[in-house]
Design a protein that fits this description.
The chain is mainly α. About 70% of the residues lie in helices and about 0% in strands. Helix 2 packs antiparallel against helix 3, helix 2 packs antiparallel against helix 9 and helix 5 crosses helix 8. It starts with a helix and ends with a helix.
Length: about 220
């Protein structure tokens, strides 16, 4: 499944010409390579690194043109200022869901033309209030913290590693656009819930985890 996902994600990301998407995919691939056990997956690591290098080489012209003609951050900084002003005026109530452009547009003509802030977290805080935004992202925050604690304790399960890589990879997209607040948000929740519910039995037995047999016994109904 991972190889199929990679095969579809790489060309799709190149076609978007999105610098944030490309950076996130790069983080995802590098993180995956780093976390693969070397003794078992050396061939896969070499293949992934070589494939990634080939994609970068073949698409270098696309990214050079995108960087040369892309937005330099001026508008993003402006939209950030508008969002911060809106949050300062309505820190707890917010503008209401899906009403940021209409309400914050009263402060700025460019926003009124249909451009929200290019930051999913600021957009959530502006629409739902600070407390509402924290509540909205609390599942992702809790998952990242739990996984980070297990990684630092040198007792991560595969799902913990995946959660850390996913969180780091998503940040460039969430911090530079509003897309994570659209149709992508339910998928983010689904991934977070799936990783949160992964059995602790995935931990190696010598690192304090349950054995596979114990896991099966725990999940069998009591007769």
């Amino acid at each position: 499944m991972s190889w199929w996902i990679l095969g579809l994600a790489v060309p799709a990301t190149v076609l978007t010409e999105s610098r944030a998407n490309a950076l996130s995919l790069g983080i995802l691939l590098v993180g995956w390579v780093v976390l693969l056990p070397t003794s078992q997956n050396l061939g896969k690591k070499i293949t992934i690194v070589a494939g990634l290098g080939l994609v970068v080489f073949l698409s270098a012209g696309i990214w050079a043109e995108r960087i040369a003609t892309g937005e330099d951050g001026t508008f993003r900084a402006h939209f950030t200022e508008v969002a911060l002003a809106s949050i300062s005026l309505m820190p707890w109530s917010g503008t209401g869901p899906n009403s940021y452009v209409e309400v914050a547009g009263r402060l700025d003509a460019l926003t009124a033309s249909g451009w929200p802030v290019h930051n999913s977290f600021l957009l959530a805080a502006a629409e739902l209030g600070i407390a509402g935004a924290v509540a909205l992202f609390l599942p992702m925050i809790a998952l990242a913290l739990r996984s980070a604690i297990r990684v630092l304790a040198l007792r991560p399960s595969p799902s913990d590693k995946a959660a850390i890589v996913m969180t780091i990879a998503i940040l460039p997209i969430a911090l530079t656009g509003w897309g994570m607040m659209s149709d992508t948000l339910p998928l983010w929740y689904f991934a977070a819930g799936y990783l949160w519910g992964a059995p602790v039995a995935a931990l190696p037995k010598d690192q304090g985890g349950l054995s596979l047999g114990a896991s099966k016994r725990l999940h069998q109904p009591v007769e």
